[in-house]
Specification:
By secondary structure, the chain is α/β, with parallel strands linked by helices. It has a single domain (3-221), classed as Vaccinia Virus protein VP39 (Rossmann fold), CATH 3.40.50.150. The chain has helices at 3-10, 19-28, 47-56, 67-79, 115-125, 145-155, 163-172, 187-192, 201-209, and strands spanning 37-41, 59-64, 85-88, 101-107, 126-139, 179-183, 214-221. A 7-stranded mixed β-sheet has the order 3-2-1-4-5-7-6, sandwiched between helices. It is globular. The termini are far apart. It binds S-adenosylmethionine. S-adenosylmethionine binds next to helix 1 and strand 2.
């Protein structure tokens, strides 16, 4: 089963590098109040959207293109009694007017899409001066053709940009004030075991094998 389908089938929460702990830390740095409008792109099971709506009592719109993920997110929002607008949509073609959101959050989503197209969409739907927070896998150095085949076979993605390449694409999409926080895959998890179970062994083994080559970054920009 493809990696994203597996995440959806198993309903894995916090399916991004740094996990939910990073999400909380990143949001804690933002000025969010009840007037803030947030778009959670590729919301997965809805954990982050739910957290934002509960903690900040603000408007949250959550989108994903995977029916199973949307089902899990819907169940969560209903259980938590949250009025989060949940939309089935493609990040590369967002069904929102320009200047709609104060914050666009994407946690390990953009890399699964046509990156530049998606970044342009984030820019279009953000209000002037709005903030993009994007947590994405980033190559610490360019991969060889063979290495690249391994990565592609596990995640089905078309590229893993380096930090410089991400930065270029963000600029090309219109973003400025680009701040970058560097992260590495969790060494304890890699050392002590695959918390996700046997089905995720391809992902886990890849992370171990490419520990020095694949990291992640938080790209925060306006
Ligand atoms: C690695 S998961 C991360 C999910 C969630 N952001 C999290 O951190 O738990 C990637 C998510 O992006 C969604 N996704 C991938 N490509 C997408 C696209 N083109 N449009 C919308 N969602 C997409 C997947 O369905 C999946 O829910």
């Amino acid at each position: 089963m493809a990696y994203l389908d597996l995440l959806a089938e198993r309903g894995i929460d916090g399916a991004h590098p740094g996990g939910f702990a990073l999400t909380r830390a990143l949001l804690g740095r933002e000025m969010i109040d009840s007037n803030t409008v947030v778009l959670d792109v590729g919301c997965g099971t809805g954990q982050t959207s739910s957290y934002i709506a509960k903690k900040y009592k603000c408007s949250v719109v959550a989108i994903d293109n995977n029916a199973k993920m949307l089902e899990k997110a819907q169940q969560r929002f209903q259980k938590d009694n949250l009025k989060i607008r949940l939309v089935r949509a493609d990040a590369m073609c967002l069904p929102f007017w320009p200047n709609s959101f104060d914050i666009v959050l994407a946690e390990s989503v953009t890399i699964f899409t046509n990156i530049i197209r998606t970044l342009r969409e984030y820019f279009r739907v953000l209000k002037p001066g709005g903030t993009l927070i994007d947590v994405e896998m980033t190559a610490e150095m360019p991969l060889t053709v063979e290495e690249w085949k391994d990565v592609k076979s596990v995640y089905g993605i078309k590229q893993v940009p380096t930090q410089d390449e991400w930065t270029c694409m963000l600029k090309a999409a219109g973003f400025s004030n680009i701040q970058i926080f560097k992260g590495r895959m969790n060494p304890l998890e890699l050392l002590f075991g695959n918390r996700l179970g046997e089905e995720f062994s391809a992902h886990f083994n890849l992370m171990k094998q490419y520990y020095r080559k694949l990291g992640y970054r938080v790209y925060r920009c306006n």
